[in-house]
Every structure is written in structure tokens, then in C-alpha cells.
């Protein structure tokens, strides 16, 4: 699908959405079919008509720790941010800031699990798999001053 942050490919199957790929990212070899309900919800999000996603998410291929981080990250509401350090504390491992950053960087479901809402402790944007400009756009879309 086309989006304000570039082309996105949303894939999933019976268990839910399993992957969101940014332009130029390779699809997994066993990528399931397109997931039209998820693409529709993303279009509504970009149009400012949706704040929460309701499609099921498939995290079966994620390690236990990364799954814990991503489930906690999914709780960060629209229009709010957190930091890598706060997220590490929330999952009960305050020293795991780098591991939390790695979990965010490898998030298979960006947008649905809002890794764009995670900032560095100094308030800087930090990285984003879709690019820093995309992260800035998403935060501004949600009314967050960056």
C-alpha cells in the first residue's frame, strides 16, 4: 500500500498480521498473503481517523524477551511516548536498555506495535527502521512535538 511514509507491504494469515515491510525491505521467504483489513486500518490511521488497531497480531516468530518488550510497547497510547530505559524498567529489566532497543529495531509489526513512540532518554528521536523522517512524521501525525 502507498502511505505518507512510503510504500508498505502488510502480510498475514489466519493468526493475524505477521509483518509490515517498508519500501526496499525484503519479504520473508515464506511471507503469507496480503492482509487487506490491516491495510485498511493503516489507511484510516494515516488519514487521522484511527488511533487504535483491532486486527489480530501474530508474534509467533519472536523470542520470549522481544515478545515481552513488544507487548509492553503495544500499551503506549496514541499521542504518547516512552523511552528505551522506561520500557526496560516496565519489562522488569532496567539494565536491558540495549536489548530493548534491539527489540524495537527488529519489531516485525511497526505501526501496529508503535516503536516510533520510543525516544532516547535525552529526548532525541533515536533510530527507526523506516527512517528518522518517517518516525518524525508519525509522531507529528499523533500530535507529538519533536
UniProtKB/TrEMBL annotation:
It is an enzyme of class 2 (transferase). The active site is at residue 115. One of its GO terms (cellular component) is cytoplasm. The keyword Nucleus does not apply. It catalyses: a 4-O-methyl-thymidine in DNA + L-cysteinyl-[protein] = a thymidine in DNA + S-methyl-L-cysteinyl-[protein]; a 6-O-methyl-2'-deoxyguanosine in DNA + L-cysteinyl-[protein] = S-methyl-L-cysteinyl-[protein] + a 2'-deoxyguanosine in DNA. PROSITE patterns: MGMT. InterPro entries: MethylDNA_cys_MeTrfase_AS (IPR001497), MethylDNA_cys_MeTrfase_DNA-bd (IPR014048), MethylDNA_cys_MeTrfase_DNAb (IPR036217), MethylG_MeTrfase_N (IPR008332), MGMT (IPR023546), MGMT_N_sf (IPR036631), WH-like_DNA-bd_sf (IPR036388). GO terms for molecular function: methylated-DNA-[protein]-cysteine S-methyltransferase activity. One of its GO terms (biological process) is DNA alkylation repair. Keywords: Cytoplasm, DNA damage, DNA repair, Methyltransferase, Transferase. It comes from the Bacteria. Pfam families: DNA_binding_1, Methyltransf_1N. Its EC number is 2.1.1.63. Gene3D superfamilies: Methylated DNA-protein cysteine methyltransferase domain, Winged helix-like DNA-binding domain superfamily/Winged helix DNA-binding domain. Residues 2-59 form the Methylguanine DNA methyltransferase ribonuclease-like domain. This enzyme catalyzes only one turnover and therefore is not strictly catalytic. According to one definition, an enzyme is a biocatalyst that acts repeatedly and over many reaction cycles. Involved in the cellular defense against the biological effects of O6-methylguanine (O6-MeG) and O4-methylthymine (O4-MeT) in DNA. Repairs the methylated nucleobase in DNA by stoichiometrically transferring the methyl group to a cysteine residue in the enzyme. This is a suicide reaction: the enzyme is irreversibly inactivated. Belongs to the MGMT family. This is Methylated-DNA--protein-cysteine methyltransferase. It comes from Corynebacterium wankanglinii.
Amino acid at each position: 500500500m502507498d502511505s505518507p511514509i512510503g510504500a508498505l507491504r502488510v502480510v498475514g494469515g489466519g493468526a493475524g498480521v505477521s509483518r509490515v515491510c517498508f519500501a526496499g525491505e525484503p519479504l520473508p521467504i515464506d511471507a503469507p498473503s496480503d492482509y487487506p483489513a490491516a491495510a485498511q486500518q493503516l489507511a484510516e490511521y494515516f488519514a487521522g481517523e484511527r488511533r487504535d488497531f483491532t486486527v489480530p497480531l501474530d508474534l509467533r516468530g519472536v523470542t520470549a524477551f522481544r515478545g515481552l518488550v513488544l507487548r509492553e510497547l503495544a500499551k503506549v497510547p496514541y499521542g504518547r511516548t516512552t523511552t528505551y530505559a522506561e520500557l526496560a524498567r516496565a519489562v522488569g529489566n532496567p539494565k536491558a536498555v540495549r536489548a530493548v532497543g534491539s527489540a524495537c529495531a527488529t519489531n516485525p509489526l511497526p505501526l501496529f506495535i508503535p516503536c516510533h513512540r520510543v525516544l532516547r532518554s535525552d529526548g532525541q528521536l533515536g533510530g527507526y527502521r523506516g527512517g528518522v523522517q518517517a518516525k518524525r512524521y508519525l509522531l507529528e501525525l499523533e500530535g507529538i512535538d519533536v
